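re the bet — no i am not wrong, look at it urself. input seq straight from the record:
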Amino acid sequence: MASSPERNDDLVVTRVFDAPRELVFEAWTQPEHLMRWWAPKNMITASCKVDLRPGGSFHYCMRAPDGMEIWGLGLYREIVAPERLVYTDMFADADGNPVPPTHYGASPEFPAETLVTITFAEQAGGTRVTLRQTVPPALKEREGMEQGWNEMLDGLAGDLESAASDREIVATRMFDAPRELVFRMWTDPQHVAQWWGPRGFTNTISTMDVRPGGVWEFVMHGPDGVDYKNKVVYIEVVRPERIVYDHVSGPLFHVTTTFADEGGKTRVNVRMLFESAALRNKVAEEYGAVEGLGQTLDRLGEQLAKRPNDVTITRVFDAPPSLVFKAWTDPKLVARWWGPHEFTNPRCEVDARPGGAIRIDMRGPDGTVYPMTGVFHEVVEPVRLVFTSTALDGALEVLNTVTFIDENGKTKITMQATVLKATPEAAWALSGMEAGWTQSFEKLGAML
């Protein structure tokens, strides 16, 4: 059922919690959680029953220190786990029958029912909750309602902290590599097989379909010869920011991995959420999951450090960033400078937007044509470009990150070319990559 349109005079409360979205949604819908936080300061939740389905209800009682009880009733309109809850809220009696607000001393203008919409959004490894309640802007109880919600959300934060610490295994690492590369290392089976698992483990990957609903099936071979079959189902894949999946082959757990860009480096946060604290502790003790996750991230760092063919070039051009950026994104301009000296570009197609394609056919002085294709991942005018390029029939794949910095009307460009894939057939191209970019920049400078 569609919810009512939002109004500008709605009561809105927003809070960010350091917990995965699934856990926050669970804390908002499971009685064992609600009993711990669903009441303002100096009150307790004395009763809470939940029938979590569209058309279902939740019936609760808040009790004050003097023994006074306030009963409420919510009727679910929309439930989209773990993204959204919509329900109508009203005062009720102990039997779940609606009563007028004046029954509990509310003002006569207090509405008989209000609509509450709660959204749960992933934010940097945590969850941003936005609560919207339809109440009249002139309602005298409005300020107290907002204060009550904030006090309740303070209680939710404490409940989440306790629940997460008991049920989670968490690890964070900072890698000296661009986010697009780290994300690629996490989603390309050829790369994953090289580093996944604790030290001494190897991997055989049969399927890795990285998309919502896709399946990843693999066998981890332990140093003692024991094989461990694994099956993962992807829930959310947002390139290059976030991967969420369920490990469904046992032991069961939910994983949220976020990738944050921090000045060209990448901060990775991994949260493994288990159904119970007992299961979390069992996995930690029997499988060494805490140490294993740490070693897995260490191995990823070691693989990222093995990039001898990467090229980084910095140049300052006597032109403003807006013009230099245009020279990288306007196909007519790109065709004039792309490639080494004596090369031309009879075909140059540039669709500079996230997901847009790039296709350049470079023609050498001997007439040989070298096609290059690619995809843009980030386009932030006039600050940053990130795109992958593929050449030599797929033998060479490179991640290109270009930044544009204004220096008193001039533009400092830093271009980092990170090799994602290189077969032996691409060795000659790798050896000339730095020289080729250097000559391209010379042509760009002359054009500008």
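see?? The mean pLDDT is 92. told u. also The first helix runs from residue 21 to 29. so pay up
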